[in-house]
Design brief:
The chain is of the alpha/beta class and 205 residues long. The protein has one domain: Spore Coat Polysaccharide Biosynthesis Protein SpsA, Chain A, CATH 3.90.550. It contains eight helices and nine strands. It has helices spanning 39-50, 60-63, 80-90, 108-115, 145-153, 159-165, 173-178, 192-204, and strands at 12-17, 33-34, 37-38, 54-57, 70-71, 95-100, 123-127, 133-141, 168-172. The strands form two sheets. It has a seven-stranded mixed β-sheet, with helices on both faces. A two-stranded antiparallel sheet has the order 2-3. Strand 4, helix 2 (60-63) and strand 5 (70-71) form a beta-alpha-beta unit. Helix 3 (80-90) crosses helix 5 (145-153).
Length: 205
């Protein structure tokens, strides 16, 4: 297994996306407990492993107690693209790591793998063997901001549209495996059933 650097090679700001409405969970999933910690804490730990500057995109009243800067969506909240746009608008660095708040199995090693592709592309993301892309556990540069703004104005809300407009480097599933990682790290939690299944899996493992 290749060794990955424990430190990023250039300044990076980490943003945790917690602005979703959690309709399927029925309550704020970011604060749901998983192995005695809120789901969002796992994302925060990953963020802190790659950056000294970790910020949350969400409602300040909900997350102020976590001790990190909390930034509400700029303008009308239109899903994950709004969160990415808000993150890039507030980022003091050229590159920003963006991760959803509901991936408790995410590994810092995956972000180090993406960081290793910088500073060349406008974005770095995971693309699985079946062609699916994971855009909410990715790195975006400030060059994506204008495209995100234009897409929001035109109601082109799919992040796939944004990625089609910029230069992207994709991490392959084979590369993921070469670094001792599997697609399980991208497991996300949307419902109480998802949370229970994940807890059961960990207990049985």
């Amino acid at each position: 297994m290749n060794r990955l650097s424990s430190q990023p090679t250039l300044p990076l700001t980490a943003f945790i996306l917690a602005g979703g409405r959690s309709r399927r969970m029925g309550t704020d999933k970011a604060l749901q407990a998983y192995l005695n910690s809120p789901l969002i804490q796992y994302a925060i730990r990953v963020g802190q492993s790659i950056s000294a500057d970790v910020r949350i995109i969400g409602e300040p009243g909900r997350y102020a107690s976590l001790g990190l800067p909390v930034i509400p969506d700029i303008g009308e909240s239109l899903g994950p693209l709004s969160g990415i746009y808000t993150a890039l608008q507030h980022s003091p660095t050229l590159f920003s790591a963006v991760m959803a708040c509901d991936m408790p199995l995410m590994s810092p090693s995956f972000f180090q793998l993406m960081i290793g592709r910088l500073p060349g592309p406008d974005a770095v993301a995971m693309r699985f063997s079946d062609g699916a892309v994971e855009p909410l556990c990715s790195i975006y540069s400030s060059t994506c901001l204008a495209f995100a703004s234009q897409n929001l104005a035109n109601r082109k809300l799919k992040i796939a549209d944004l990625l089609s407009q910029v230069a992207v480097e994709y991490i392959s599933e084979d590369e993921l495996h070469r670094h001792g990682l599997t697609r399980e790290i991208f497991t996300n939690v949307n419902t109480p059933e998802d949370l229970n299944l994940l807890a059961s899996y960990i207990t049985e493992a």
